[in-house]
Write a structure and sequence with these properties.
Blueprint: H1 2-20, E1 22-26, E2 37-42, E3 46-52, E4 55-63, E5 66-76, E6 82-89, E7 106-114, E8 124-130, E9 139-142, E10 146-155, E11 165-170, H2 171-179, E12 185-194, E13 201-206, E14 209-212
């Protein structure tokens, strides 16, 4: 009996360790949008949970609109520095100069946000984007927000359409590189599919989002 009890405790410790190393943020596959809010800037992108095969995902459809899904949650990057997710797009937004205000549209993007508190102008964010016309791994300041919002193209025009692409980024390391600061906490994550500047149309799908230890 004692050996069984010790074995039970060991299994429990392994399960707890695994739970601590994975912090769910967007559990779309469980048909949940708990804590997510839609925020509009120009029109409303349509977001809805949809079943694809045997998996539930978040679908976004934008027609000359720019609204995002936003979730406030304080994440300790010392414990879980990696953000994980998957995404796919149905079409590109060809012909845009994405470093300009007129071209600041993306079929899919994901933000991580560090709030500036009362000094709101000190808010910082990384915007991981699926670029239509910019090479993968290109970095540039956002055309509207400047160096407070840094853009990083995780996918570019070479990425296949209608295919799931998994992503994993060390957010703490990216913040260090892009802002020159060791930032321990982020305060929110957002998703957005937007076409308000180009007055075009784009569809994207987002899989589950979670933070992990490694």
């Amino acid at each position: 009996m004692k050996k069984l009890f010790i074995a039970f405790l060991m299994v429990l410790a392994i399960q707890n360790s695994a739970a601590e190393s994975r912090l769910p943020l967007g559990e779309f596959s469980r048909n949940q949008l708990d804590g997510w809010e839609q925020k509009s800037t120009e029109g409303e992108t349509q977001y809805q949970l949809e079943t694809m095969g045997n998996l539930t995902v978040l679908k976004a459809n934008s027609r000359a609109s720019a609204s995002g899904m936003f979730k406030e949650q304080r994440i300790d990057l010392e414990k879980t520095p990696f953000i994980n997710w998957s995404w796919r797009i149905a079409n590109r937004l060809d012909g845009l100069v994405e470093q300009s205000k007129a071209g600041d549209d993306y079929a899919a993007r994901l933000y991580v946000v560090v709030k500036g508190g009362l000094a709101f102008w000190q808010t910082k964010a990384i915007n991981y984007v699926w670029a239509s016309n910019t090479a993968k791994e290109t970095i540039w300041p956002n055309a509207y927000a400047g160096e407070q919002l840094m853009m990083l193209a995780l996918r570019g025009p070479e990425a296949a359409l209608n295919v799931w692409h998994p992503e994993k980024r060390n957010v703490r390391a990216d913040l260090q590189i892009l802002f020159g600061e060791d930032i321990r906490f982020i305060d929110a994550v957002a998703l957005m599919t937007d076409t308000d500047n180009s007055h075009g149309q784009a569809s994207a799908f987002y899989g589950d989002i979670w933070f992990s230890k490694d």
